[in-house]
Structure formats: C-alpha cells, structure tokens
Design brief:
Shape: extended
Pfam family, one: TSP1_ADAMTS
Protein name: ADAMTS-like protein 1 isoform X1
Keywords: Disulfide bond, Immunoglobulin domain, Repeat, Secreted, Signal
Subcellular location: Secreted
Radius of gyration: 57 Å
Organism: Lates calcarifer (Barramundi)
Number of strands: 99
Helix content: under 10%
C-alpha cells in the first residue's frame, strides 16, 4: 500500500495519504478511509490484496449511455455518509473494464447529512483532536485543541497542546466532511479542500446574497449607509448612533475619535440586553456574534448576522475632539410575499385542480398583514399561483355529479411542452431556428410523460419555426475628414472609421479587409517660407518637425514664458528610445531687446515636457535588443547609412470608436478614442510605443440629437404624516417633456406618455411603535339644546404599533392625567315654548265626541325653574293641536249590543315546569307552584281596559307579584298557594269564573257562607261593582269537581316515570348522575307542559266511573284519557305545547303511561297504545303497534305486531285472529317479548288480530286490522275487561275492512291491478303494461264485472307507462397507465386509468348517463421493482454521555432499494413505520452519591466556557468543576 499512515502506541488514527492498493494490472482497489480503531484490535499480519472482498455486482447501477461509450463499468452505490449531521461526504466507485488506462476518475463524491448537529455535539475538528488525548506524544499525554484556518494546508489535522502552545500535525488529512475554514461551507474530502456552495452541492458556486438567501438576487433586503458626528457641546454624556433592526446582516461601523461604542439589544418579546465593548475580541449578544476591534485612534465593529434582536449602537462621549462614525448594513424587508398552501380542491372526486395564492407576511411579528405593506417595496414581486391536480379518485356511483368550486377557472392538463430554440442559422441578415413541440401530461407524482396530440388540441399548438437575426449585418461607416495638421505646405488629415451594427452602435463583426483608410496626405494653400525641403512633413525626423512647429508657435515676449529648445537626437538608432530638450523660463527686455532667463516659478501655466519617447526604425535583430546587450567579442556589422530606406514604424495611432455620449438624449457630444495600434497584429499596444507628436488631433461630434422622450420628474418628499406608528410621505410625480435641448421650460404630459414605471408618490415612514397616549373621541350630543347641559366623550389609552394596528391599553399605561370626558354645553338661555297639559272635557254629554289637548307658554329661568308666561311670547311658535275621540254613556236613543266574554270550558293540568302559561277564563287550572301565569278574559263589544276582576267575590287588589294589565288580563309572577281561588272576570253585565288550584297544596277550596245558597248546592254570587244596590248575579260552579281525576292522572304520571327508571334503565346505578339527569331532562322536554281537557270529556269519564276509580276498568279509562291528552297536545295548544317529533325517543318514551309495576301494590294488566308506528326501521321490515291498522301497500319481508303490556303480577300475552285461536307455523310465530311476527305476509294473513294480556287480577285486549289490498280503512280497537263477550267491533263505517261481513250485491266494487310487465327496452325508452279489472265480492271469492261499474269508486288506474328513459350508455376505460404511482407496499405501487361514460356511438356523455351501472375502478395496485424498498439502518453513533439522563446517540435511517441499495426519498417507504433515528443511551446512575465524577464528555468545554457556577453543569461535570 503506497503512502504513509500515522501509527501511535495507544489509539491508531489510520489516515492514509494514498487510498488505493495497486493491483497487478494497474487498477486501483479502494480502501475505506479514516477508520478510528484501537491498536490492540489490529491483526498481527498486515493487509494483503487478497483480503479485499470482491464487490457485489448487484450493488451497481445500470451503465449509462455515457459509460457504454467508454471503458468504465457503471458507478457503484453511494457509501454511507462520513457524518450523521453537520455536512459529510459520501463516495461512489467504478472500475475500469479494460487493461488500458481509462480516462477520468474512478471515484466521485457528494455531500450528505446536511442538517445541523445538536449544540452539545461540539466541533468536528475538535473531536478529531481530542481522539488523540489518550495517546502519548513525546512521552507524555496532552489535551489537544484544534488549529483552525491553516492557510498552507487547511485539510491537515493540526492541533495544539493545551497549556504548552505545542502545535503538531497529528494526521495529514482530516476526516471527510470537516470544514476547511470556520467561515466557509467548503469541506475536506480525501485531504483536498473542495468547494461547496450554499446549496450544499460539491463544486457548486452558489453563494448567499447580501440578504442571506442562497443564489438570491439581493431583493429581500436594502443597503443602508450613514454617518454620525458626535456633538460634545450638547452637554450629553451619550447618544444613539443608529438602531439596526432584527435580522439585519453585514453590519460594519467605524468610529474615528476618542469616543467609545457600546451596544444595547431588545428582542421582539421586549427583553433588553446590553454589551460593553471593553477589549478587542468576539462577543455574543442575543445569539449574535460581534467582532470588535479597538485601535489607538479608532474602533471597528463587525457583525455578520443575522441579528437576533433590534440592536441600538450608542456612543459614550469622551473629552477631546468630536468623533465621526460611519456605518453600513443590509436591512431586511420585513414585509415579504409568502406562498400559501394549496386551496381546497375544485372538485370532491373525479379529478380536479387546486392552486396557491400569496399573502403578505410580517417577519417581525410573524403575522399576515394586508397586501399594501408588501406593495411598498418595488423589490417585492408577488409569486404567481401554482396549479396542481387533486382528488383523482373516481366519484362513487351514488354521487351522480361532482361539486365545482368557484375558482375552478383554469383549463386542465395536458398541455403543449416545447424544447429550447436551436441556434440561428445565420448571425445577421435573417435566418431561421426551430424547436420540437409535444403534448405532455403530468401525473400525481409530478412525472411528465408524452401523450397523444389530440389531448392538447383544446389550445393552439405553439410554433416550431421562427425567423431570427433579421437585422442587417454590420457595415463600415467613415466620418468626415479632420482639418490638415499643418497650416502651410504638406501635412496629414485624419478621419474616424467605425463598424456600425443595426442598432447604430459601434461594434465588431465587419470584414477588416474592406475597412476604408483613416489618414491621407493634404496640402495647405499657403507656402512655407522656411528652408526648402523636398520631403513631406511626415518624412522628416520627428524632433525636427516638432521643433519647427514650436519655433513658429512660441516666441519670447515681454511676459515671462516657457520657451522649449529643439529636441535632441533619439537615444537609440533603432527601436524605442528617448529624446530630450531644454525648456527655459525667459522674458524679452524691451529697453535692450535682449532675452533674460528667469526661475521656473516666474512663468505661469504648465511647463512643456522636456523628455519624450522616440522610435526611428525597427531593429534588424530581436525586438528591443540594443548593442549594449551583445556579447563581448562578437563582431557586429554596422549598417551603412543610406544603404536602405527608412523603415516604416511598427506602431501607429488609430481612431477606435467614440466615447459614450455626454447626454442620453436631447443632444450631446462624444470624443473620438485614439489608440496605439500594432500594425502587424492589429492589436492595441501601450501608448508609449507610438510617437506622441503624431497623435491625431481631438475630434468631437454631436450625438443623441433626438429629443428626449417624456420622463418622470419627482419632487421632494413631504414631511412624515405621523411621528410614530406608521406614517406616509408624499411627493409630486409628473410626466414631463423638454421640447428642445436649449429650452429651459418643460411640459407636463399625461402619465401614459412615460414608458418607465411610475415612481411611487408615497412611501412609509416612522415605522416604530408610538408611546401610549390618550385617544379622544368626538364630543357627543349635548343633553340639552339650551339652558345648560352636558356632553360626554370617550377617552381611551391607546398605542399605535409599527404595523399600523392600534392596541388598547389600561389607563395606567398613559403617562399624564386623563383628559376630561365631560364638559358643560348649551349655556344660552332657552326661548319660551309651548307645554301641553291636560285634555279638555269631552265635546258631548253622551255617545262619541272629541277632546282637545291644552297647552300653555312656559320659560325656563336662570335658576332652572319653569315659569308660565303670557301666550303672546309663544306666538311665533306653532301651537300644538292634538285631538282624540272620547266616549261617554250611551245616549237613550242608541242601540248597542251587549258585551260577551269568549270563555273556554277547559281544564288545564300542568304536566311539567314551564316559563309562562296562557290560560282563558271559564275553566279550571291545576298548576305547579312558582309558575308564571297569564289569565286572559277575551271579550266582544267591550273595551279591554274597562274589564274588572274579582277574587272570591271581592275586587282584585294588585300585589308585588300580581297585576292587572291595561289590556285587561291578570298576570301572576311565580304563583303560590295563596293565589288559589275563584277569579271572576266582569265585562258589563257578563261575567265568567276561573278556578285556580295549586298542585301539592293540601288545602281545599271553599267559599264564604254568603255565597252558599239553598238546596246545599254551591253557587257563587258576584255583586255587581257598578251598583252595589242591585241583586246578586248567580253562576253555579263546582270548586273541587275534577280533583279526583287530576289526582289519579298525576299518580299515573309518577308511576310511569318510576317504571321507566326501573324497567328501561336497569343499570342506572352504574351510570353517573349527570347522565341520568340529562336523560330525564330530555324526556321532560319532549313531554307537553300542560294537558288541556274539555270539561264535557271529563264529565263523561266521571259519569262512566260510577263503580269508583279503584277498579281495573277505571285504571284503563284513566290510562286511555292520559294517552288521548298527550297525543293531542301538539294540535290543541299553539303557544307552549309542541313536543318534538324528530326522534323516536322523544315522541315515544314520554308517552308511556304505565301503572306502577315495581311497588307492592297489585295492578290489572294495561296494554300500552302507541300513537304511531316506529320510525327508523328498514324498508323491508314493518313494525305496527297493536291498536293501529296495518295497511300493506307493497310487499315486505316481515311484519311485527308489537304488544306491550304492564301489570303486577306480570301479565301473559295471547293472540287470536278473527276471534279464533291463532295457529302458529314457520311463517307466523311469537317473539320472546310476546309480540307477533309474520314472515312475508300475503292475502291469506288478512284479518283482525287481537292481543290479550292476563294476570290473576283480570285481562285486557287490543286489536289491529291487517289489510294487504292497499285500500284505505279504519282500525277497529276494542278494550275488553274480564268476561266481556260482546261483539269485537259492533260498528264499522268502512265495509272493506271485513270481507266476511258482506254478501252478494252488497259487497263493494274495487279495481284490481296485476304487476307491471318487464320493460320492452333496457335503455333509450321502452314501455310496460298491466291488466286492470273491476272486481266484486269478498276477497278469495270475488269475480270480475264490467268496468263501468267501478267508475264510481275512483279513477281507473293506468295500464301502460314509459320505462328506462335514460339513453343507452356504458362505462368505458382507457388502458392502464404505467406502474409508477405511489408505493403502497413491498414491490407494490398504484397505476391509473381514465373511466368515462360513452354512448353506443362512442361519444363521451355526462357521468349521470351511467349512474345506474357499476363503474369500473380507475385505480389498482401493481407490482414494480421500483417499490422494492426498505428502511436501511446505520450503526448507532457513540453516546454523548457515559452516565446520567442526558446522553443520546443517533443513526442514519434512509429509504433504499433492496437490490441496488440506492437511496430514494423517504415518502416512498412511508407504508412501513420509520425506525427511530436517535435514542437515549447510558441511562445509568453516575456512581455513588458521594463520588465526584464527570457524566459527559463535554465537561472540558464547560470548564473553558466558565459554566461551572451553574448548577445543571456543575452536577454533570463534578470532577472538572471541583477546583473552580
């Protein structure tokens, strides 16, 4: 094995430089790196090649197309991650399949476990250093601490010994996944630092933007710059520099001066903190690291962020000069768009769509706010809605429709998908480019597959060809010639030649061979009067030409002037050199006409250059090599003068385009750019290589002469509308236009004329919480319009928050005293006004007249009292006039009907407590105490206000709980025993009585002796209150006439309740009291409040009970009466008596009135008669309670005649049919309850069924008539006492109920119909027929007669009808889709197909057409190798503690393929529970109570961070903290 490994005596850290063992054929065999093992666990023999197990070929993936073209095998599966958290590395291998050398690498890496480690895990590099703590180095043990950020080799494990400062490289490589640098995501892999982007991908260049967003565009924050200057003269000792908000990043402050910085913090919860920066170093405040540097003349504060709270940077003033602070930071935009979850699906089944929206989210408060907050920031772009399919499962056959939600507005998938355009066929002048377009659809997993094109034809197919690069190709454009470079003789002139593209811009792309020349010779018309030279100007030596020009242009004057001398020859005969000249400050002395030299500072202006580069001809040898570089002794042939003509220069000046225009529009200038060009390479060279004297002159040209387009012009921001909370600043924004460049006036245009987006005219300001302050509402209306009143207002303590909301606080939060909430008003004197007094006397002495309302003029004095004044003072005010009719005694000649009282002969028995009862005079009332009663006296031809009331013959006196209302009725609040008695209502000559008794009161009602008349009969005499002298009017009324019946009804009520509690709830003792009370309350609510009986009905029962109430017949009559009263209450009482009818329990249970069966008292049998049949039963079964008719209009599976009886002893039940003993068989039999069941009842079962209940005290019977013809009939019910042998039913109004009772012509006529024939068609519309006949005679012996005879019995039933009207349709399906749905089991996935309804022509029709047919399934399970997945579990990591309750360990749990081992997303394995990835460990006691030891491996860190004073750390690190 090549490379070296570091061996130690105790713990072996095997860190190999080379990670491969070379086989004979040169292939590399990979060995797992970085294994920490004990040395005593190593084998004695070293590893050999034969020890390497061959790799399992099944673990390799299929070879890709790329691999098939090379000599490589497929990549193997990914290795286990080197770390379980904090970012590690995983590798994959491949082998070379050839004996030759394969190009490329046999190993590749990727990152893994990119989740943060728990805080107590510690630093990964520090763990590797601490692994050597029990290994001797140079004969002794050391505690090793990591060395970070090594600039030479960041991936070597360098550690320093704690205390000694010894730094040692303990291993050449750190473990894979170790960070190269502390402030970077780059990680070491195989000893090499690999780049890792913020997306945790190897080799990625993704970086966080300044806002902390990976690959962001910086739009989620804003850059804030500013500076602050301290004012020592203000007298303050400190001041606030800047408040930096929560989540800000990249903060940098620099203080220059003697003052000192410190920082305060305030969390969003209001927790405050402070940090004094005393020395240079790192500080921590609110989970934020601050780097502070204190130098001699300045302080620097850096915070990378994000800030964990609002930071306020303050400055403490010191003596000396004022300090200047510059700061910069990136402030987050706290209101950001946040995408919502998907809305509910557009349909409940059958396949629909759902979409998302966006909401404005406040990062500080964590709340959703209105959208206007996010619109404040132009950087905020609202996300577009996303669309996805949902509820793809088919609708149930019973649905028949699918519910459409209101936002199902988008066209469904499939859709057209296009590939990118190909490159254009030409770069200019017009070409074409193409792309492919296909129809695709997306399944529930997001997989996109191609499908048939017809599915996308609902929208036009996108184009597959388009023209491109239609603009013209660039061309050369020559500018005008410049003036000649000389004013006499022969010179040069220049021009600019540009390559102009289709946009009019200078660009490349022109053919260089066709470029026009940029300079030419020119001849000035003025001859030069100098030495006659035949050579043109350019052919002369440069210094000669320049000297001539200088002599012509600069001469000595009487003002001090710089006078340059002639240029000396070039320092080099070939190549580049320099030449010099003298420049003197000279002046012409006018009196002597001589030139004098002066110091340079006497001359104004810039001194001309005295040295410049020069270039004559290229050298013949190596470029730039002079004679002085020749080797000694080497002969050099001197070039003879005049042997060859002067060579052309290698470099020359050339125009290269223009600078940018000075104005963007409205006319500007641009200058031609001059460059030094190498003529051979045509590339730009340094300007020193060109002759400066030949530099072309400066050329200027006009540009951007077109008028400026309209543009937005903004004004200054106004002051903020609010000093705190959130305010607005406004500014004027107008679209303006300047007609011409020279014009100073601007025109204001419409906003539509400006193309760019309009700047915002408003922006938020002062966005911080206001202090609590008083909020005063407007004053309310004055209590008086004059004469002095008061008006009030509401004053609240409120606080406006930074998000614009207003918080209401207690008054103690506001600092000052509360403003007044009441003040006087309307102090002016009131004018006089009319005041109404009494009504005048009636205008007539008898009959009907009118009355007028009288008024007086009054005025309020200063003392507040009113004074009556002269009516003239009120003459300006309209006098109130009101008239009302009045009625006195009847005139003698008038005829008026006598008044009458609409009495009701009723007996009211209160059954349970109620809020208020309405009673009418003329009857009796038995009420429960503490009930509110309204006793009404309805009259005709009499005013209700004139009704008089008596009690016991005396006028009724109002009491605190008893009153007579203006409408003439008596209201008694919470009636009591003293209210019992006889109440009399008097209307004119008419009067009616009402006897009121209290249930539970033992006193009997009686009347005074003056009311008793002769013959021993009680008669109540009522004196006429109108004239006491008239004779008494008498009305006989029996006081206690119905007391006995009422007592028995109430006794029966109590026995019913007790019977229910015992017989129907046998386990009530096991149920809690609240449940029983709830059930009793619900039963009471379902029973009537009052039973109302007619007096004549009670009189009839009293007459029938001549034998006394103790007999069984009497009990039967009382039970029957109670059943009647409770069944009719819903019809007789509209105000309070409406028992609910929604549930069987509420309608049936309270109506069971049973005699007490559990007491020792014996009772006769009683059969309970139900008011109706039981409700909630299957349609195939029918239950009828005996006593009700059983009318079967359609066949049923079974019929139950239910007979329920009570008695003591318990009665036995027997059944008869038509008066004879009933014969039982397989169809007709008794149930265990004694009820009768008939299976599949038919015509032979018709008849009268009687249930008889018997015990030793007597018997009773109840009957029901069973009829199956469908005709209407009446039930015949007869209760028989003991020994009753009378007819079963002596009177029958409907003869059809008994077939045996008719003979011959007297038998009724009826229609008989046969069953319908089968439909003539199964779909699309058919018909059915049946036979209809007229029959006469009893059932079983009837015969058919002419149809005309039955016409009087009713309309003839129809004998034909239409059927199966729905169009012919069937369910159709597409073929099953691919098996790539969600994994639902081992090797099981789901696959889909479309199910639709189509007619016989193959056309799709609505689903309801097929609603009656069985719908095929659109989803089924399928077998796929892709779901052969399982949870792959890694080994547990080392426990974080050796004992105690705080240790834990973790392991890697991934969803992997069984065959390939390839990891996949976890949700594919979720059909099986996920194993836990962490657990507690070493949960053992940490030794004896007195033993001092460490229970965690992080105790050294605890001691270094000085955490030992805290009890929770000191108890776990007792040994390390013992000396602190």
């Amino acid at each position: 094995m090549t490379g070296g490994c570091l061996w130690t005596t105790g713990l072996l850290l095997l860190v190999c430089v080379k990670v491969a063992v070379w086989a004979n054929d040169g292939d590399a065999v990979f060995i797992r790196e970085f294994t920490l093992i004990r040395r005593d666990h190593l084998p004695e023999e070293p590893l050999h090649d034969s020890s390497q197990k061959p790799e399992d070929p099944s673990s390799r993936t299929a070879r890709s197309e790329e691999d098939r073209d090379t000599l490589w095998d497929a990549w193997g599966s990914w290795s286990e991650c080197s770390r379980t958290c904090g970012g590690g590395a995983s590798y994959s291998l491949r082998r070379c399949l050839s004996s030759k050398t394969c190009e490329g690498q046999n190993i590749k890496y990727r990152t893994c476990s990119n989740v943060d480690c728990p805080p107590e895990t510690g630093d990964f590099r520090a763990q590797q250093c601490s692994a050597h703590a029990d290994v001797r180095y140079q004969g002794q043990y050391h505690e090793w601490l990591p060395v970070y950020n090594d600039p030479d080799n960041p991936c070597a494990l360098k550690c320093k010994a704690n205390g000694s400062g010894l730094v040692v490289e303990l291993a050449p490589k750190v473990l894979d996944g170790t960070r190269c640098y502390t402030e970077s995501l780059d990680m070491c892999i195989s000893g090499v630092c690999q780049i890792v982007g913020c997306d945790h991908e190897l080799g990625s260049t993704a970086k966080e933007d300044n806002c902390g967003v990976c690959s962001g565009d910086g739009s989620s924050c804003r850059l804030v710059r500013g500076h602050y200057k301290s004012q020592h003269a203000s007298g303050k000792t400190e001041d606030t520099v800047v408040v930096i908000p929560y989540k800000s990043r990249h903060v940098r402050l620099v203080l220059k001066g003697p003052d000192h910085l410190y920082v305060e913090s305030k969390t969003l919860q209001g927790v405050k903190g402070e940090l004094d920066l005393d020395t240079s170093g790192q500080f921590h405040l609110e989970n934020t690291t601050l780097d502070y540097q204190k130098l001699s003349d300045k302080e620097i504060l850096r915070i990378t962020g994000p800030l964990g709270a609002d930071f306020t940077v303050k400055v403490q003033f010191a003596t000396g000069a004022d300090s200047v602070i510059q700061y910069i930071y990136y402030q987050p935009i706290i209101h950001r768009w946040r995408e919502t979850d998907f809305f509910p699906c557009s349909v409940t089944c059958g396949g629909g769509y759902q979409l998302t929206s966006a909401e404005c989210f406040d990062l500080r408060s964590g709340r959703v706010v209105v959208d206007q907050y996010c619109h404040y920031y132009p950087e905020n772009v609202k996300p577009k809605p996303k669309l996805q399919e949902c509820n793809m499962e088919p609708c149930l056959a019973s649905d028949g429709y699918k519910q459409i939600m209101p936002y199902d507005l988008y066209h469904p998938l499939p859709r057209w998908e296009s590939s990118p355009w190909t490159a254009c066929s030409t770069s200019c002048g017009g070409g074409i480019q193409s792309r492919s377009v296909s129809c695709v659809e997306e399944d529930m997993q997001g997989t996109i597959t191609a499908t048939e094109e017809w599915k996308c034809l609902y929208s036009p197919k996108t184009a597959i060809l388009q023209p491109c690069n239609t603009f013209d190709c660039p061309t050369w454009l020559a500018q005008e010639w410049s003036p000649c470079t000389v004013t006499c003789g022969q010179g040069l002139r220049y021009r600019v030649v540009l390559c102009i593209d289709h946009r009019g811009l200078h660009a490349g792309g022109c053919n260089p061979t066709t470029k026009p020349h940029i300079k030419e010779e020119c001849l000035a018309t003025v001859p030069c009067y100098k030495s006659i030279d035949t050579l043109p100007v350019e052919a002369k030596p440069v210094w000669h030409k320049q000297a001539i020009e200088l002599e012509e242009e600069i001469t000595v004057t009487e003002e001090p002037t710089f006078i340059p001398g002639p240029w000396q020859p070039c320092s080099q005969t070939c190549g580049a050199g320099t030449q010099q000249r003298t420049v003197k400050c000279q002046v012409l002395l006018s009196f002597s006409q001589t030139v004098a030299d002066l110091p340079d500072d006497e001359c104004g202006g810039v001194k001309p250059a005295s040295i410049q580069p020069c270039y004559r001809t290229p050298c013949s040898g190596v470029s730039g090599q002079g004679k002085e570089n020749k080797k000694e002794g080497e002969e050099e042939e001197e070039e003879e003068e005049g042997e060859t003509p002067e060579r052309e220069e290698l470099h020359d000046w050339e125009y290269e385009g223009f600078t940018e225009c000075s104005e963007s529009c409205g006319g500007g200038v641009q200058e031609a750019v001059v460059i030094c060009l190498n003529k051979q390479t045509r590339e730009a060279a340094d300007q020193s290589l060109c002759v400066s004297s030949r530099r072309p002159p400066q050329l200027l040209q006009d540009c951007k002469t077109q008028p400026c387009p309209p543009r937005w012009e903004t004004g200054e921001w106004s002051s903020c509308s609010a000093t705190c909370g959130v305010g607005l600043m406004t500014r004027t924004v107008a679209c303006t236009h300047r007609p011409s460049r020279d014009s100073n006036r601007t025109e204001v245009l419409r906003d539509e004329e400006c193309q760019n987006p309009k700047p915002s005219p408003v922006q938020a300001c002062n966005r911080f919480d206001c202090p609590p302050m008083w909020d005063k509402n407007d004053w309310g209306q004055c209590s008086q319009s004059c004469g002095g009143g008061v008006q009030k207002r509401q004053v609240l303590c409120k606080q406006r928050l930074a998000d614009g909301s207003i918080l209401e606080l207690p008054d103690t939060f506001c600092p000052s005293k509360s403003p007044a909430n009441q003040q006087p008003c309307a102090k002016q004197e009131c004018p006089p006004h009319w005041v109404t007094t009494n009504w005048s006397q009636c205008s007539v002495s008898c009959g009907n007249g009118i009355q007028t309302l009288q008024a007086i003029c009054r005025k309020q004095g200063e003392d507040g009292r009113y004074w009556t004044i002269d009516p003239k003072n009120c003459s300006l005010i309209a006098r109130p006039t009101r008239i009302r009719p009045c009625s006195l005694r009847l005139c003698e000649n008038s005829i008026k009907p006598n008044p009458t009282i609409l009495a009701q002969r009723k007996v009211y028995i209160q059954w349970r407590k109620g809020k208020k009862l309405q009673l009418v005079v003329g009857g009796y009332g038995y009420l429960l105490p503490w009930t509110t009663v309204v006793l009404r006296c309805p009259t005709r031809h009499f005013r209700k206000g004139h009704i008089r009331w008596l009690k016991e013959g005396k006028p009724l006196v109002s009491l605190p709980h008893l009153s007579i209302t203006p409408l003439g009725y008596v209201k008694i609040q919470q009636v009591r025993a003293s209210d019992a008695g006889i109440y009399t209502c008097i209307a004119g000559q008419a009067q009616e009585h009402f006897v009121l008794q209290i249930i539970g009161s033992k006193q009997k009602l009686s009347v005074s002796e003056s009311w008793l008349l002769a013959n021993g009969q009680q008669k109540v005499r009522q004196p006429d209150v109108a004239s006491a002298g008239e004779r008494f009017q008498e009305l006989p009324i029996s006081l206690n006439q119905y007391d006995s019946i009422v007592e028995h009804l109430l006794e029966l009520k109590s026995s019913v309740q007790d019977e229910k509690d015992i017989t129907e709830k046998p386990h009530s003792s096991e149920r809690n009291r609240s449940t029983l009370e709830d059930e009793r309350a619900s039963a009471e609510l379902s029973s009537p409040v009052v039973l109302i009986a007619d007096t004549h009905r009670l009189d009839e029962i009293t007459h029938n009970l001549s034998e006394g109430l103790g007999g069984p017949h009497g009990e039967q009559l009382i039970a029957q009466l109670l059943s009647e009263l409770t069944m009719t209450q819903g019809e007789t009482n509209d105000s309070t008596l409406h028992p609910p009818e929604s549930a069987e329990s509420s309608t049936q249970e309270p109506l069971l009135y049973k005699p007490k069966a559990h007491t020792t008292r014996s009772r006769n049998p009683v059969i309970i008669q139900r008011p109706r049949k039981v409700g909630a039963v299957p349609s195939s079964e029918m239950i009828v309670h005996v006593g009700l008719p059983a009318l079967l209009q359609k066949p049923v599976a079974s019929l139950e005649l239910r007979c329920e009886a009570l008695g003591n002893p318990e009665p036995s039940l027997t059944w008869t049919k038509n008066g004879k003993e009933l014969l039982y068989n397989s169809r007709v039999g008794l149930l265990p309850t004694g009820s009768l069941r008939i299976q599949s009842p038919s015509k032979v079962d018709e008849g009268l069924y009687t249930c008889t209940a018997r015990n030793r005290l007597g018997s009773t019977s109840l009957s029901s008539w069973l009829q199956i013809t469908g005709g209407k009939g009446r039930n015949c019910v007869q209760g028989n006492s003991m020994g009753a042998n009378g007819p079963i039913c002596s009177e029958r109004s409907n003869s059809s109920q008994s077939a045996e009772m008719c003979h011959g012509q007297r038998c009724p006529l009826r229609w008989r119909v046969d069953p319908w024939s089968p439909c003539s068609a199964t779909c699309g519309g058919g018909s059915q027929t049946r036979t209809v006949r007229c029959m006469r005679g009893p059932e079983g012996r009837s015969r058919e007669v002419e149809s005309q005879l039955c016409l009087d019995t009713g309309r003839r039933p129809s004998d034909s009808r239409l059927c199966n009207l729905l169009p012919c349709a069937r369910w159709a399906t597409t073929s099953w889709g691919p098996c790539h749905g969600q994994c639902v089991g081992p090797s099981l996935a789901t696959q889909h197909r479309h199910v639709y309804c189509q007619n016989t022509n193959g056309t799709k029709v609505p689903y309801r057409m097929c609603s009656g047919l069985h719908r095929p399934s659109s989803l089924k399970n399928c077998s796929t190798e892709g779901c052969a997945l399982h949870w792959r579990i890694g080994p547990w990591t080392q426990c974080t503690a050796t004992c105690g309750r705080h240790g834990f360990q973790s392991r890697q749990v991934t969803c992997a393929h069984r065959r390939t081992g390839k990891a996949t997303r976890e949700h594919h394995c979720m059909w099986r529970p996920r194993p836990s990835s962490w657990q507690r460990c070493n949960i053992l006691s940490c030794g004896r109570a007195g033993e001092c030891r460490d229970s965690t491996r992080y105790c050294e860190k605890v001691r270094q961070l000085e955490l030992c004073p805290l009890p929770q750390f000191k108890s776990r690190c007792c040994h390390s903290c013992r000396n602190t």
